[in-house]
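Loading example: each entry is read as two labelled lines plus one structure line.
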Amino acid sequence: MVYIRDNIKGGALTETTFLVLLAVYTPNHGYGIMQFIENETNGRVVLGAGTLYGAINTLVKKKWIAPSGNEFDSKKKEYVITGLGKQKAEEELKRIVEVWKLASTIIKGDRIT
Amino acid sequence: MSRTVLRYFFDFLDEQEKWLNSMAKCGYRLKKCGIMTYTFDECKPNEYEYAIEFVGDRAYSKAKDYRRYLEDMGFRTFTKNINWNLSYGKIRWRPYAKGMGHISTSPGGFNKELLILEKKKDGKPFELYTDVSDKLNAYKSVKRTYVWAVLMMIGLSAITFIPNVSSLSPAMTWVLRAVILFFSILFVIPMVKYFSLVNQLKEESKTFD
């Protein structure tokens, strides 16, 4: 089986990472993040609770997102994107636009001829 | 009407989950669980569904944080033991935990190796992990637990072969060995199953990654 992994220096984020970052531009809790992703992708991406928990904790460890508000609050724990996280999300957007431009020129060009 | 059922699962993950779901299908909703008992309340058939997650390899504080998170996600959660509480001490070493193993202390993670999650049936599959590598890690930690259970059984039976270690008569020693062998088989069966599940997922992760 031949399979292709992402280029190390390509800098692409996984889709899950990018979507979680987008979900916490305004403070959001676990359930809200899950709903956001499911709604915004029209159900194409549905994250399991365990997988999302792992993703949140990884991003907190990387300091791309941070818990917001009082941690000992009885309310649901909320997360918000950090400056570093925003920087990563912006880089990803730039990368996607580049790929999109390249793909649309070639794919459209091919259709005309 | 509540109903209490006595059960013990050697395959604590899949078989227990299947059983709880079949109970829910027949209109029984889990109310509480003890070491070997489950108490159910009557409910509408097919109203709830269950999933089981092994958290025995996590430190108590982390398992607690995870439980709180799942409650926030809207699941009802129960904790459950995976073994009989046979030790007298209050400290138990969990060799199956990652790294050097965690020491679990009462009243912490002790006897709370499993989380039973309940959600209302909504037509969507009850999947906790939607990522092959996450699934793989979850099964790996279950597999590791069974490997340790089998190793302990081998250790126990080895002790019976040390001369003069106990005051049991030769006949009783053989009975003891038979009992140990019986339980070893009950642990070996799920161990083999989780070994093959892990291998299957490893193959899958090669195609998807």
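Chain A has a mean pLDDT of 89.
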